[in-house]
Amino acid sequence: MAFVDPIGDLITRIRNGQMRHLSKVKIPFSNFRKNILEVLKQEGFINNFLVTKIDNMDTFEVNLKYSDGEPVIKEIKRISKPGRRIYAKAESIPKIQNGLGISIVSTSKGVMTDVEARKNKVGGELICRVS
User: Fold this and answer.
1) pLDDT tens digits, residue range 40-96?
2) Which residue from 3, 18, 40, 107 has the least number of CB within 10 angstroms?
3) Are the C-beta atoms of 64 and 76 separated by less than 8 Å?
4) Residue 99: pLDDT band by 50, 70, 90 thresholds?
5) What is the per-residue pLDDT for 2?
6) Cα 86 to Cα 101: distance, rounded to the nearest angstrom
7) For residue 74, how many other CB atoms are within 10 A of its CB?
8) Phi and psi dihedrals of 81, rounded to 5?
9) Residue 114's pLDDT band (cuts 50, 70, 90)
10) Distance from C-alpha of 99 to C-alpha of 59, rounded to nearest angstrom
11) SS3 state of residue 7
């Protein structure tokens, strides 16, 4: 099954899972999704994720994170879409909520947060913002 926007699907599954207060969500496997989940895990927005095999297909099992019964992710929003890609230089990557949130940026040096991209002085495609 092919997706038009696999990253949008990842974001929607996480958002919907947290609205339903699910402990885990299943997401189809891809290396780019893995990189985004790694960033979310490093920044403390999700607990963990595992690669499992269902019907001979690899999938991620993402453990969502809650604090006092409320989702840790207040907002997760796609910035760059398949029909309109948004790119930014290192200096012009926007800060999310004055540094309280993060932007996930796909750079030539891999997927990283906006803070890491500014520190490494690399720009790239703005994937999503999380707060």
Assistant:
1) 999 999 999 999 998 999 999 999 999 999 999 999 999 999 999 999 999 999 999
2) 3
3) no
4) confident
5) 60
6) 18
7) 13
8) -115, 165
9) very high
10) 32
11) helix
With pLDDT > 90 as the criterion, what percentage of the chain qualifies?
A: 95
The residues pairing with 112 across neighbouring beta strands, listed in sequence order, are 105
Label each residue of 16-32 as H, E or C.
HHHHCCCCEEEEECCHH
Give the pair of three-digit tokens for residue 102.
């993060």
Amino acid at 20: R
Q: Which two tokens stand for residue 113?
A: 């947060």
Give the chain as a 3 state SS string: CCCCCHHHHHHHHHHHHHHCCCCEEEEECCHHHHHHHHHHHHCCCEEEEEEEEECCEEEEEEEECEECCEECCCCEEECCECCECCEECHHHCCCCHHHCCEEEEEECCEEEEHHHHHHHCCCEEEEEEEC
